[in-house]
């Protein structure tokens, strides 16, 4: 089980090597139950005040990418 302190520490560690800025826009498509998405795609963006857009579905990601024009895309091999 991950503690709140552990998640916050992971967010700060991620931001130290891959900075996110308040004017960034992320496109989120992974389930929020996925700890990678929750940490990097949601909490890191919220920590700095960046915007998060949510994909409508896996099939809609190409369309959503053109609509949103994200500056950040947290991904896993499944999409690639």
Care to describe what's here?
This protein starts with a helix and ends in a 12-residue tail after the last helix. The protein has a two-stranded parallel ribbon. Helices cover 45% and strands 10% of the residues. The mean pLDDT is 94. The longest helix is centred in the N-terminal third of the chain and has 14 residues, at 4-17. Strand 1, helix 2 and strand 2 form a beta-alpha-beta unit. With 80 residues, the protein is mostly helical. Helix 1 (4-17) crosses helix 2 (35-48). It has a single domain, classed as Rossmann fold (3-Layer(aba) Sandwich), CATH 3.40.50.980.
Q: What is the makeup of the main sheet? A: 2 strands, parallel
Mean pLDDT: 94
Q: Which CATH first-tier class would you pick?
A: Alpha Beta
The number of helices is 3
Radius of gyration, taken over Cα atoms and rounded to an integer in Å? 13 Å
The sequence of SSEs as H and E is HEHEH
Low-confidence stretches: none
Count structural domains: 1
Proportion in β-strands: 5-15%
